[in-house]
Amino acid sequence: MNLNLLYFSPTGTTEKILESVSGAMDYPVKNTYDLTRSENREKHITFSDEDIVIVGVPVYAGRIPQILLPSFEKIQGKATKAIFIVLYGNRDYDDALLELKNRFEERGFIGIAAGAFIGEHSYTTKVATDRPDQGDLAIAKAFGKEINSKLEQRQENLSELVVKGSFPYKALNAASKLVPTTDDTCIDCGICAKFCPMDAINPLNVKEIDAEKCIRCCSCIKKCPTQSKQFVNENIDKIITMLESNLSNVRKEVELFF
Ligand SMILES: Cc1cc2nc3c(=O)[nH]c(=O)nc-3n(C[C@H](O)[C@H](O)[C@H](O)COP(=O)(O)O)c2cc1C
Ligand code: SF4
Ligand code: SF4
Fold first, then answer.
1. What is the dihedral of CA 221, 227, 233, 236, to 10 degrees?
2. Ligand 1: centre distance to CA 81 (Å)
3. Fewest CB atoms less than 10 Å from the CB: which of 108, 117, 145, 149?
4. What is the tens place of the pLDDT at every residue in 237-247?
5. How far is the CA of 108 from the centre of ligand 2 (A)?
6. Is the full-model pTM beyond 0.85?
7. Which numeric CATH code is attached to 181-232?
């Protein structure tokens, strides 16, 4: 069997969990498809029944990031075993895990396990600070080991994977046109433009951000070495205040499904 990783992870928490889960599995990773890079979202990828794929995405507004849908159309399985993972920022994952599972199962994948993990919230370091932490990573490793034994079972002995979530999925609001601003402390290092998953930041003038492309993933804000990028907006401030007052003292725990 060939183990493959397929993920989208602008601020890195999803990637961390996939590394821990796969690191505990009996199969070496054959291919890694990092869909955070726009060029990888153009690739047509076909998996066979000899492949196992761990698919991981962050939760955006209780759903999977909708910008991934065109790239998912280019991915095809053929009785390919899959593990579905969502990372959420300590609020809720709502219907994201169900949506991920459904979208892959309708493309030739067979879900054998799934998990909802917690990562530091993209919008603030005060919610789920530094998660996934050691406890989360230990659970991720134990999850990987549990999957090893699941993979040894015969196909006919595998029960259908059931995860939390409901359909129709949570309704999405119209996308906002807000983009991060750049203040004068910017040292023009180019990191934000290099890692923007949407290529929305002009590398020749990092203050210029294309509002049509930006998905407000916060990669540029979290990766900037001089904290020069931020959202300057009353509505975002209200959301952050609400997140911090409701969720900074709450610890949600990982949920696993087999
Ligand atoms: C646009 C957007 C919407 C989000 N919506 C939710 C949400 O509905 N529930 C939640 O708990 N966290 C939400 N988050 C937080 C992310 O799910 C969380 O920070 C995740 O760990 C980010 O994954 P990454 O590090 O792989 O990018 C949202 C983040 C962004 C950028
Ligand atoms: S410009 Fe927008 S899409 Fe690009 S990294 Fe920043 S928040 Fe994410
Ligand atoms: S990462 Fe920060 S310092 Fe570097 S170019 Fe972008 S805004 Fe400027």
1. 50
2. 26
3. 149
4. 999 999 999 99
5. 32
6. yes
7. 3.30.70.20
